[in-house]
Write a structure and sequence with these properties.
- It contains 8 helices and 14 strands.
- It is of the alpha/beta class and 333 residues long.
- It has 2 domains: 168 residues, Peroxisomal Thiolase, Chain A, domain 1 (3-Layer(aba) Sandwich); 153 residues, Thiolase/Chalcone synthase (Peroxisomal Thiolase, Chain A, domain 1).
- It has a 10-stranded mixed beta sheet, sandwiched between helices. A two-stranded antiparallel sheet has the order 2-3. Strands 9-10 form a two-stranded antiparallel sheet.
- Helix 7 links the parallel strand 11 and strand 12.
- The mean pLDDT is 94.
Length: 333
C-alpha cells in the first residue's frame, strides 16, 4: 500500500443499541468532574461483546462510505478486553474477518496505546501486500467488564466505546508516522490487572466470581509523569514541535490535558499548538479514546495542518511492571 492515509474515522459509541450513558450522578463517589473533568461515559449493555461492537463499527462505515465493491483487504482489531469467554481476541478477529470476507486480520492488546499500535500494524500489513486497497482499524473497548465499580480510582475514569478507521492508499489524511512499544518500565506497578472476588459491576450488582479487574496505583506518579510523556512523544517527532498544529492525546484524565497545556506554554511559549480534550463525555475508553477524539474534532482542522496523537498507558495485556506508549502523526486532508 503506497502513501497510506485515513479515509474516514468514525466514533460509534453513541449507538443506543449497544450503549447507555452513565452520568456522574449515578456513581457512589463525589466530585468526579472536579477531579477528572469527566461528566459522563458510555457503558455497553451486558449482552454486548467485542464481536458485536466490531460488527457495529463496520456497519457504520458502510453507512458513511458504502460497502466497497472490492471488499476489505485487512482488519486490525485492538481491545483491552481479551474476551476469554469467547475464546480470545484472535478468534473474535478471525470470526469478523470470515464474516466480511477479509483475507488478513490481526488482533492486539496495547491497552491505552492501542490506536497507535493498530495503525502501525495496519501499515505493516499494507507493506506486506502492496495491492491492498482498504484496511479497517477497529478499537473496541468494554472496560466495564474489567472495572470494579467499588474502586474509586478506576470506576470514575473508564468507559466503554468503539471507533473505526479505514486506511487506504493515498488516503485523505496522510499518515506521516505510526509506532508503538510495550517495553516501558513501570517500577511502581501503577497499572495492572488483579484477580478479585466480590467486585461491583456497572449495573450495581455484585459479582461473586473470581474476575480480573483493572488496578491503578500510584496515581500521583501517573499525574506527574504521563502529561510530560505525552507532550514529549508528540513534540519529539519527524516534524518537531514547530511542525505540529494539533495534539490529540490519549484521553486518560481531564486534568492531564490541563497539565499538558501548562507544560506546553512553559516549554514552547512561541509555538501555537492546540491540545484537544474530549474526555468530558467520553471518559477514558483506552484504545478507542484517540480515534473517538479525532472523530469529533477532525472536521474543524484546517487542511494541511499536522496532528500528533500520543498515547501512554498500561502494558500489553496489562502486564505488571510494564507500560506502553505510541504515536500517530498525520497531515489533515
Amino acid at each position: 500500500m503506497d502513501n497510506p492515509g485515513f479515509e474516514k474515522i468514525i466514533d460509534c459509541s453513541g449507538d443506543i443499541s449497544c450503549f447507555r450513558t452513565l452520568n456522574n450522578s449515578e456513581h457512589q463517589f463525589s466530585k468526579i468532574q472536579e477531579r477528572t473533568m469527566i461528566e459522563s461515559r458510555q457503558i455497553a449493555h451486558n449482552v454486548v461483546d467485542i464481536s458485536q461492537l466490531t460488527r457495529l463499527a463496520i456497519g457504520k462505515m458502510h453507512v458513511e462510505l458504502g460497502k466497497p465493491k472490492d471488499g476489505y483487504s485487512g482488519l486490525v482489531l485492538s481491545s483491552s478486553n481479551t474476551e476469554e469467554h469467547a475464546g480470545g481476541l484472535d478468534k473474535v478477529a478471525e470470526g469478523i474477518a470470515n464474516l466480511y470476507g477479509i483475507p488478513k486480520f490481526e488482533s492486539l492488546n496495547y491497552a491505552c496505546s492501542g490506536f497507535p499500535a493498530a495503525v502501525e500494524a495496519a501499515i505493516a500489513m499494507g507493506k506486506e501486500d502492496p495491492d491492498m486497497k482498504r484496511i479497517l482499524v477497529v478499537t473496541a473497548e468494554k472496560l466495564s467488564e474489567i472495572v470494579d465499580y467499588s474502586d474509586e480510582n478506576t470506576s470514575v475514569l473508564f468507559g466503554d466505546g468503539v471507533a473505526i478507521s479505514s486506511i487506504v492508499p493515498n488516503g485523505k489524511h496522510q499518515i506521516i508516522d505510526a509506532w508503538a512499544r510495550g517495553n516501558i518500565d513501570d517500577p511502581k506497578k501503577c497499572l495492572r490487572k488483579e484477580s478479585k472476588v466480590g467486585t461491583k459491576m456497572a449495573d450495581g450488582s455484585i459479582n461473586e466470581n473470581d474476575r480480573d479487574v483493572i488496578v491503578m496505583d500510584g496515581g500521583r506518579t501517573l499525574y506527574k509523569t504521563v502529561p510530560q510523556s505525552l507532550l514529549d512523544i508528540a513534540c519529539h517527532t519527524k516534524v518537531g514541535p514547530e511542525g505540529i498544529d494539533y495534539i490529540v492525546p490519549h484521553q486518560a484524565n481531564g486534568k492531564f490535558i490541563s497539565y499538558m497545556e501548562r507544560l506546553l506554554q512553559k516549554q514552547y511559549p512561541n509555538i501555537d499548538i492546540e491540545i484537544i480534550g474530549t474526555i468530558a463525555h467520553h471518559a477514558n475508553s483506552a484504545s478507542a479514546s484517540i480515534p473517538r477524539a479525532l472523530a469529533s474534532s477532525i472536521d474543524r482542522f484546517e487542511s494541511g495542518k499536522v496532528v500528533a496523537c500520543p498515547a501512554k498507558g498500561a502494558g500489553i495485556n496489562y502486564e505488571e511492571g510494564k507500560l506502553t506508549e505510541g504515536l500517530v502523526l498525520f497531515k489533515v486532508g
